[in-house]
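Protocol step 4 of 5: obtain the predicted structure for the target chain.
Materials: sequence only (see below). No template structures provided, no constraints applied. The aim of this step is simply to have a reference model before the mutagenesis design in step 5. Sequence pasted as it appears in the construct record:
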Amino acid sequence: MKKIAVFAGSFDPFTLGHLDIVKRAAALFDELYVLLAVNASKKYYFDEATRAEMVRKAVAGLSNVKVEFFDGLTVEFMKRVGANFLVRGIRGAADVEYEQSVAWNNKNLYPECETVFLSSAPEHLMVSSTVVRELLKVGIAGSEEGRTKLAKYVPEDVLPLLITSTIDSSTQSFSTEGRESSAGSRLPSATLRG
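Step 4 output (structure tokens):
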């Protein structure tokens, strides 16, 4: 029986921390779906197509990784593809508490769902999509020095997309509902999305 897992998130944008979790999960499972969350009530910094391109470029060398979109509960997608494992990255104590509550709810909704927690590598503990978005908002991508700094947060293949993407000005203020706050701490989510 194949071991199929899902790693879900906004990936707005996809970071080195995300890539580290994907690589490690890909080594543990036969198939890994990187599931991009689609939530109409949430404003994303990058549009769906750009986020998908970022993830696809970053994971291109991993043959057992597929990139998908899903508008709904992560566990519903898991049922659809026959996945029994949900991979979650943990950066610190705040993540543990939040992720345990999400894992409990997911298990309640889909008893076959086993959540697998992977601790962030030490070099990625402070890497977050929120930090990258904040750096982009202050114009750091406009200089060579700034791009060098951004390269510490995002995969090499993602960096050009950060720089060249046209960002809709209406998405400049992003929602923190159920995701990371501007301080990088996790906030509860009633939607149980990745």
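Step 4 remarks: The chain has one domain: 4-171. The CA atoms of residues 10 and 37 lie 5 Å apart.
Proceed to step 5.
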